[in-house]
Amino acid sequence: MGAHAHHDHEVKVTVIPADSAKIKKIWMTCLILGVVTAIEFVLAFKMGRGTLLTSIFVFLTFVKTFYIVGEFMHLKYEAKVLIWSIALPMCFIAWLILALCVEGDAILQLREWVK
Asked: Is the dihedral of CA 25, 26, 32, 35 positive or negative?
């Protein structure tokens, strides 16, 4: 044969050591995010459109966002001051979004009433 003989060896990749705690945590994260997304999906088809549904969607989106940031960016292991410096402005932004939705709905209803 020559220097370029063909070998039928299968390459097997294994993680050593297999960390079952990390694998379990990944599956738990997937499950939590999947459940919250499923709740959003069900509410999208079961509830009427309006401020309440928008508020629920905004709240659940922030729940998922904070969970993702906490887990994958390891923010939950940081100092509490850092967490609050991110969470508090986000709460104000959520309040702003909800306030704009409520005010926008009120303006639309007022326009309909004036016609």
From this structure: negative
**21: how many CB neighbours lie within 10 A of its CB?**
7
- pLDDT bucket at 7, cuts 50 / 70 / 90: low
DSSP string, 68-112: HHHHHS-GGGS-HHHHHHHHHHHHHHHHHHHHHHHHHHHHHHHHH
CB 66 within 8 A of CB 87: yes
Q: What are the residue ranges spanned by the domains of the chain?
A: 20-114
pTM: 0.54
Q: Over the stretch 8-37, which tens digit does the pLDDT of each residue have?
A: 677 777 766 667 887 888 888 889 889 998
